[in-house]
Amino acid sequence: MKKKQLLLVGGGVVLLLALYFFGQTVPEKKANQAISPATASAAVHFDDILAKAKQKISPAQNARLTALENSITRGDVKDQKLHLYHQLARFWKDSARVFEPYAYYTAEAAKLENSEKTLTFAAQLFLDNLMTGGEPAMQSWWAANAKVLFEKALELNPANDSSKIGLGACYIFGNISDNPMQGILPVREIAQKNPDNLYAQLVLGLGGKRSGQYDKAIEHFLIIVQKQPQNTEAVFNLADCYDLKGDKLNAVKWYQASKKLIGDPGIIKDIDKRINELK
Fold it and tell me: Residues 57, 63, 64, CA angle at the centre, nearest 5°?
């Protein structure tokens, strides 16, 4: 089994649902993939994303989309835009089944609505894709969009730890700052204040794994599985960190545990293959 296939499983339930509804929209993540400002310098623009998305849909769908895009008339433009963004989001989700425009228009609607609930929902769409890996420039695009939404949500509710963690994750995984500690410190502060905040533990664990600090990552994943033994993402990432660290015994132990949580026979077969390679 290839390492990048194993790592893909660690994306969690959110990624599996995204693949189910939209198909795979991001490249598979490579182990300990480093991102530098140089490799992420090619900016991604939504116009380019939209143009590529339109190439994937039928002429009839393109005609319907054009009609939607041209539907704003004079009057209450804000309400019309809000309605249009909801329509466009539904089109890309339900009809075209292309994720990026769906996330973008959901975010645009959330900005107009300006409620904490809609802003955090839209931000999480971007963040979930950011944390599964992908091309550096695209990761920066996911992160930049999520950052704006989390910041707006925190303006409405500055005490929301989940939004603080989400914002921190944008800096940790999105290469939108030359100082990754800008994201790590607020998340670490929340985890130290409340070790039972498993979202903070997960972000710190994934951040440690990403940077090659496997011992630190293992500490965070162990906290999660002690509280939530059925947490597939934490269990698999724990196995993967032991594997990357070269601790075969513990890697096998946690790969075995992950099999009990995964219902896909194909994935289980691949995990068995990796277990046999480690023995």
Answer: 90
